[in-house]
Amino acid sequence: MKNNKILITINNLEDIDKLKELGITKYVFPLKGFCVGIPNTFLISEIPCDGYIFINRILDNKGIDDLREILHNMPENIKGIIFDDLGIMELIKDLDIEKILYLSHFNTNSKSVNIYLDMVDSVILSTDITKEEIEVIIKNAKKGITLFTLGYTGVMYSRRLLIDNYSKFYNIEKENPLVIDNTGHKFIVYENDYGTYFYHNKIFNGLELMELDAKYYFVNSVFMNMDDIIKMLNKEDTEIDSDKGFLYTETIYKLKGGSND
Amino acid sequence: MTELLAPAGDLERLKMALLYGADAVYVGGRDYSLRANAKNFSIEELNEACEFAHNLGKKVYVTVNIVFHDKNLLNLKEYLQKLKEINVDAVIVSDIVGVKLAKEVGLDIILSTQASTLNYEAVNFWKNLGVTRIVLGREATREDIIRIKEETGVELECFIHGAMCTSISGKCVLSNYCTNRDSNRGGCAQICRWVFENKDKPDFTFMSKDLNMVEYLEDMINMGVNSFKVEGRMRSVYYIATVIMCYRKMIDGILNKTLTEEDKIYYSKILDRVANRDTKPQFYNKFPGVNESYFSDRVEISNQDFLGIVMDYDKNNKMITLEQRNYFKVGDVVEFIGPNMETFTYTISTIKNEDGDDIDIARHPKMIVKLPIDTEVEKYSMMRIKVFDKKCVL
Question: Phi and psi for A140 in degrees, rounded to 5?
Fold first, then answer.
């Protein structure tokens, strides 16, 4: 196992000891006020050990201003940052921390990845590409790649407060998160002040990606029990409903018979 | 610069958009464009589009805004070189590799809204890479736009009319999971308009109403927004002509200080009528809530106001030749709209078929008919049902 290369998001500080026992030492802390789709987030001052901060919000101007303040006063235990908004790239140019770009559904080709690798230390590839495509990118990349390996995958991010609106419209008690279903297409929907985030309702199990030569393997623990994650990492049997995402199923670029064939 | 920017899914729409008042159009090529199911343009058609637009002193922007997978990159640079050779005015891209290659071939670069740009530092990031204009995310508020303009000085393009993604653009792959079609490579199946079950609770829906910025157009012009973008490369020629003509007249009225409240109400009524969805300013003036979204039981009613398009005017016989688009009959009160004329009302007295025989009803789609009209009507003018009288809308 390459547990020393696992980057794992933390929901509960008590999980850290369990992870240490497995040799997992790279912890990712969703930063309070700068994340969507994550119920448990942390202030910088609440991060108890060496770790990375995680920011997946698309920021407005105020968000950028607020983050600038935080980044310029960071304690030494913050070793890295994982982020989506490209405005953050301008804020961290001169910071001596590890920089990992997670552009959600972008970073799906070698050339874009290499352009970004001139600016950051690693990028997390999109989960919308196949294992074969991942292998090509790893082969061509000028630095080590980070692979989303395990956890719920984000499928939609709205700035709107969709659950709040729904509850108000129907005058029903607000339930957050929701699990919604259209003929078997199920999604977990979670809202906070910064928007509404949808996850595919099946856990992405890409543990076979750990056979590939990556810099890090990213595990997203949101809405998961750490004991289940540990079992999956140890390849023990679990009741977890998981799938392989698009690792072996290429998405359709153009419909055959479409008007632009 | 105050540019009115129109969508065009094909050459006919492009010509209509430009003739009805757009300063520029954005179109997709057959490859690399996010509206994969629009007809889109071949290189030859793009060439014709550029010649047509440039002869009018107007511009053509080509969308190259998919998120590329490695195999999509094979001929991208050659394609961009061809776009440069035929003198397209800029390309609209979202993926950084598109920015790099477009810069290498010397094309002007507009950053697509797919890049989810909502703050001044993100704008600075792209500006430093050579992007000349940014299409801001539709979530940008008035204050966001003002500050971004002040801090960066970059040309800003903002949507003013049309459909909204519920998601931040570029941040949705619902189609990938529900249909296996890649949202970020032109396969969006509009899953945000599906109805989802939520256990024993009411169905969960999350579709947004459309965007309409009539009320804030003057404000946006004053704050220095450069390009005013209408959504809808899949929309009809009538929709595009009508929406563009309304915004053209309003922008001109604002710039020459003649736009009245009565005008705004009149154009708003027309804009509401031409679409079949409700519209709101969305994020611009307040945070969108319940009233900016649709819930269940929304009914879309097809608009049948568009009756025909003028193909020719015979000055000697004072007859127009019209291609029918919706049912009309003798006695109907209609109006003609056109690029270079004042809208006028007309009561249909006679309809002749192609053989010159009198008929009472034009009922067949695209049938050619002739109508006697004293006023000269230009080719590409349109006949529609008369719905509003400007003086009666207040």
Answer: -90, -15
Q: Domain limits at B369?
A: 306-392
Looking at the partner chain, which of A64, A90, A112 has a beta carbon nearest the beta carbon of B95?
A112
What is the spatial distance between Cα B81 and Cα B66, in angstroms, rounded to a whole number?
18
Token pair for A173: 């008690």
Residues B167 and B257 in one domain: yes
Give the pLDDT confidence of B35-55 residue by residue, as tens digits: 666 678 999 999 999 999 999
Q: Say if the ipTM goes beyond 0.90.
A: yes
B327 in A contact zone (CB under 8 Å): no
Please report whether residue B328 resides in a domain: yes
Tell me: cis bond preceding A177? Omega within 30 of 0 counts: yes
The range of the structural domain enclosing residue A237 comes to 3-152+203-243
Band (B196; pLDDT cuts 50, 70, 90)? very high
DSSP letters of B17-82?
HHHTT-SEEEEEBSSS-S-TTS--B-HHHHHHHHHHHHHTT-EEEEEE-S---GGGGTTHHHHHHH
Residues B157 and B131 in one domain: yes
CB contact under 8 A, A182 and B181: no
Q: What is the pLDDT of residues B132-173, one digit of tens each?
A: 999 999 999 999 999 999 999 999 999 999 999 999 999 999
Asked if pLDDT for residue A255 goes beyond 50, the answer is yes
Residue B299 falls inside a structural domain: no
Length of chain A in residues, anyone? 261
Residues B128 and B89 occupy one common structural domain: yes
The H or E element containing residue A112 is helix A110-117
Contact B37 A104 (CB under 8 A): no
- Listed residue (B243, B232, B282) closest to B34, CA to CA: B232
Token digits for B159?
């949507």
Radius of gyration of chain B (CA): 22
Q: How many residues are given for chain B?
A: 394
- Structural domain ending residue among the three candidates B294, B316, B337: B294
**Chain B CA closest to residue A84:** B116
Crossing angle of helices B237-255 and B261-274, rounded to 10°: 170
Q: Please state the separation of Cα A194 from the chain's center in Å.
A: 16
Looking up residue B310, the CATH number of its domain turns out to be: 2.40.30.10
Both B154 and B261 in one domain: the answer is yes
Q: Do A178 and B204 touch (CB under 8 A)?
A: yes
Nearest CA of chain A to the CA of B196: how many Å? 5
Count of domains forming chain B: 2
Residues of B in contact with A185 (CB under 8 A): 177-178
Q: How far apart are CA B358 and CA B348, in angstroms?
A: 12
Contact A60 B119 (CB under 8 A): yes
> Which residue of A158, A170, A259 is in closest CB contact with B202?
A170
Report the gap between the CA of B246 and the closest CA in chain A (Å): 29
Chain B residues within an 8 Å CB radius of A136: 70
Distance, in Å, from the CA atom of B350 to the CA atom of A53, rounded to the nearest integer, reads 74
| A146: CATH | 3.20.20.60
B232 Rama class: left (phi>0) / alpha (psi -120 to 50) / beta: left
In a domain? residue B301: no
B187 touches chain A (CB under 8 A): yes
Q: Under a CB-based contact definition with an 8 Å cutoff, are residues B26 and B61 in contact?
A: yes
